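Fold this: Chalcone synthase
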Amino acid sequence: MAMAPSPPPETVLDVVRADGPAAVLGIGTAIPANCVTQDEYPDWYFRVTESEHLTKLKAKMRRICDKTDIKKRHFYHSEEMIAGHPELFERARPSLGTRLGVAEFALPELAVAAAATAVAEWGRPAADITHLVVGTNAGASAPGADLRMAALLGLRPTVQRTIIYLRGCSAGYTALRVAKDIAENNRGARVLVAGADITLPAFTAPDEADLDALIVMAVFGDGAGAAVVGADPILPIEHPIFQMVSVSQTTIAGTEHKVSLQLRERGLGYKISGEVQALVRDNVEQCLVDALMPLGLTGDGDWNHLFWAMHPGGRAVLDSYEAALRLNPQKLAASRRVLREYGNTSSAAIFFVLDELRRRRHDRDGERCEWGAMVGLAPGLTIETMVLRATTGGRDE
Ligand SMILES: CC(C)(COP(=O)(O)OP(=O)(O)OC[C@H]1O[C@@H](n2cnc3c(N)ncnc32)[C@H](O)[C@@H]1OP(=O)(O)O)[C@@H](O)C(=O)NCCC(=O)NCCSC(=O)CC(=O)O
């Protein structure tokens, strides 16, 4: 009997792959209830860590806080929680179990709150989600926050889960990059992406010999962000907000130790070199030329023709982007506002920035550029970019 001819591979791929680029179809964010203003933070921090006697270091902390351009931050931990666990600030004591134990509850709680908002905006039932991608620096368990999220949100048991640990501040980018590839390579896929972080794993007492930790304590905050990503939106139910056009990643040679994270018995240790700002100034423009040249979007070196979703890593990092790309001050207004209101929420921050950017597109004097880019830094030191295209398909445009 003659065998039926097998279809040529291109045809099979046409069936499997989506037609169009992936797009963000819904965005949500969430923050924990405890709020500490940046003005009160030095007093709060030195009090809860029983370090009031370190008056010079506290004065330095105040100088740092005053320069952050942060108004307030939200934390899952409270003064009472820390008082009940002295291992969180007594540096010699092992404390990893306490920290990860809190994260196990906190991450899904925050991520689900953000995801529920993103799913509601997307407009379809949570059971239509086919994939889940979660990025965080505050976990080390399997199954992790992804499985708990799937249960709490009522996702299908067949949902394909990916969790990304310890990607530093770019965990949200990485999760979005993975979601883009999934959406474009699996026709009909709808990917729920979440970035969630709490700072408790890195919480530590002030120490003159560990100024990196002082910077982390002054700048980082807790939060979660989420997005639903999919290609070929089903109109009029689904409304693309940003198309995810292309991605790139460049690791700057010889910078392996400039930003790094280590999970130790006393928690998550960050190394953040003061050279980061200079490295950004010296390298980011070339990365963007490489990423945008193939799309004809370099604007002959005038980068103000794009909108920008910079990760709000710190005031000085945003200043470096602005200087290196000769940006008008309003170009980073969304990133600066997110930094001011929440601090650097690490894996979550980019979702806050995308949410703020699309909100600003509705303002009378808001951003109108069609094309833009997300930029963030990962340990390495690695510069990640994603080219975005703002669509007119947003629900209330
Ligand atoms: C911390 C800052 C707000 C301080 O502001 P300025 O640098 O303008 O102020 P300044 O020079 O007067 O510094 C104030 C005091 O802080 C000290 N100081 C500043 N940077 C320091 C560092 N990296 N390590 C240790 N100490 C530091 C200074 O010596 C000074 O101490 P004294 O007063 O005693 O002389 C800023 O440098 C900043 O925003 N840094 C970026 C923080 C950061 O790296 N974020 C995470 C990046 S990674 C990330 O999130 C990824 C991403 O961005 O995508």
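The first strand starts at residue 22 and ends at 30. The first helix runs from residue 9 to 16.
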